[in-house]
Design goal:
Keywords: Signal. It comes from Thiohalospira halophila DSM 15071. This is Imelysin. Helix 1 packs across helix 7 and helix 8 packs antiparallel against helix 10. This protein is mostly helical. The protein contains 10 helices and no strands.
Length: about 270
């Protein structure tokens, strides 16, 4: 059961998605963790990124096959997320082809939900295929940007930066609350844009320090911001479902803030 999606046709669709989504995603989004010099010279690493995508596709293929045989469960989805977080392609698509990045997380979130719910093997195959397709679309976006002579986005958010982590966490909470209010008022698109702003404008700036203390929490929050919550907003979920998801995210963010403060305190004691 091979779920790998070929490159044919991926670049034209990637172009459409890049153009259509560029107005919705802030141009100054930071790459996951430490992006590394490879992102600044991403044109020279396209073959490496393509190899990462093939490796991830192989992992998804194995996950779907093993699930059908009753040998894979939620832990395999988490293992895939860990693998996706580690490859250099992750940072490249997040920084260079930013509008295509949320779609990857949304597909992963859909796959996780299906596995957690014990869906039929064919559903898992379809969800895994959707992740693979999203990965290839991201790769198409990188190739397209390279062909056009583009590069990593400058770190220019177009708004005042929060004065430290505490202010950033507070701003994220405010944006999530505003998203809930907009959704309740029937403005799902506005709510989605606020969630994207909370992630790209604020949470991304906190990731570097948070990864050092709780990488899995960071990965799950990335999935929540880019997959779980957007899916609820786009699918017309009930207010109770949206509020419950936002509350869970805010509680996780509160824990993350405490972890970051504790880590900073420990570091200051050392020096």
């Amino acid at each position: 059961m091979t779920i790998r999606s070929g490159h044919a046709g991926s670049t034209p669709l990637a172009a459409t998605l890049l153009l259509g989504a560029s107005l919705l995603v802030p141009a100054g989004a930071l790459a996951h963790g430490e992006a590394g010099e490879h992102v600044e010279e991403f044109q020279e690493h396209l073959d490496d990124y393509a190899a990462d995508v093939r490796t991830l596709a192989d992992s998804l293929d194995a996950l779907a096959r093993d699930y059908a045989a009753g040998e894979a469960g939620p832990e395999r989805v988490q293992a895939f997320v860990d693998e996706w977080e580690e490859v250099r392609y992750h940072a490249a698509v997040e920084k260079v082809a930013t509008p295509l990045y949320p779609a990857i997380w949304q597909a992963i979130s859909d796959l996780r939900q299906a596995v957690d719910g014990g869906a039929e093997a064919e559903v898992i195959h379809q969800r895994a295929h959707a992740v693979t397709a999203a990965l290839h679309q991201g790769m198409g976006g990188l190739r397209l940007t390279a062909a056009r002579g583009g590069g990593a986005a400058a770190d220019d958010h177009g708004h005042d930066e929060p004065a430290g982590p505490e202010a950033a966490f507070q701003r994220i909470d405010e944006l999530l609350d505003s998203a809930v209010a907009e959704y309740q008022a029937g403005h799902a698109d506005d709510a989605l844009e606020l969630v994207r702003s909370a992630y790209f404008d604020y949470f991304e700036g906190l990731e570097g320090g948070l990864i050092e203390v709780d990488a899995q929490r960071v990965a799950r929050l990335e999935e929540d911001f880019n997959g779980t919550l957007p899916r609820l907003l786009e699918s017309g979920a009930s207010m109770d479902e949206v509020r419950e998801q936002v509350q869970a995210m805010k509680e996780s963010l509160d824990t993350a803030e405490g972890q970051l403060e504790e880590s900073d305190g420990d570091s200051s004691e050392v020096f």
